[in-house]
UniProtKB/TrEMBL annotation:
A biological process from GO: phospholipid biosynthetic process
GO CC annotations, alphabetized: membrane
Protein name as annotated: CDP-alcohol phosphatidyltransferase
Keywords in alphabetical order: Membrane, Transferase, Transmembrane, Transmembrane helix
Parts of the chain that traverse the membrane: 21-46, 93-113, 119-142, 158-180, 186-204
UniProt-listed Pfam families: CDP-OH_P_transf (PF01066)
One GO MF term: phosphotransferase activity, for other substituted phosphate groups
Gene3D superfamilies: 1.20.120.1760
């Protein structure tokens, strides 16, 4: 919901860093991998109930998640395909998507492991994540077949269907859980319900667009 509004604010500092890194040989895929590694460390910190350590690692991981795309757009091409003007690639977009969804569900799983009393609500939230993720990616697949595209959330490797719960909202909620872990069940119920609303809205959007 807020991704499109936040994107212009986020892009400026990320692009500045990306221009600095573009000549260092650091590839976007390396940054994606490093961001995912930070996410794993955050999950480990949550299992040990080091909540504020996890909060810092989550924020650092998401900065890497934004930086990889910026570096891809600014770095000199290494593609095997002729005519490439940057390091943007379908494979890089694939890595980014896989890492993102594993990160989101992994953080919630870590809460369940570190605090078994919250396991049921963690399972509910992961179920809701599957709804938003599947409705998001399934729409993108069909949109790609129909040559649909837009760049409201920044230049993407796929069609980015909006919703109530997008990346910005999810990161905020994960950070909120780290800051107030005792509120995990309440936060999970509210955000899970919003995720289900997002899934339902995307299904209706697909019905309108593809039916």
């Amino acid at each position: 919901m807020f991704d499109a509004r936040l994107r212009p604010l986020i892009d400026r500092p990320l692009n500045a860093v990306a221009r600095t890194l573009s000549g260092t040989g650091i590839t976007p895929n390396v940054i994606t991998g490093f961001g995912f590694f930070l996410g794993l460390l955050a999950a480990g910190a949550l299992i040990l109930q080091l909540d504020y350590v996890a909060l810092g690692l989550i924020l650092a991981s998401r900065i890497m998640d934004g930086l990889d795309g910026a570096v891809a757009r600014h770095a000199a091409p290494r593609s095997r395909h002729p005519g490439a003007k940057s390091q943007e690639s379908d494979l890089g977009g694939y890595y980014d998507i896989v890492a993102d969804f594993l990160f989101y569900s992994g953080i919630v799983l870590a809460f369940a492991i570190g605090r078994p009393e919250h396991a049921l609500m963690a399972a509910f939230l992961i179920f809701c994540f599957v709804g938003t993720g599947s409705s998001f990616l399934a729409y993108a697949i069909v949109a790609a077949k129909q040559d649909r595209n837009h760049d409201k959330q920044g230049k993407k490797s796929f069609y980015y269907l909006t919703g109530i719960t997008e990346g910005s909202e999810t990161i905020f909620v994960l950070c909120l859980m780290c800051a107030f872990p005792k509120w995990f069940p309440q936060i999970a119920v509210i955000f899970g319900a919003l995720c289900l609303m997002t899934t339902f809205g995307r299904v209706l959007q697909a019905r309108r667009d593809f039916g």
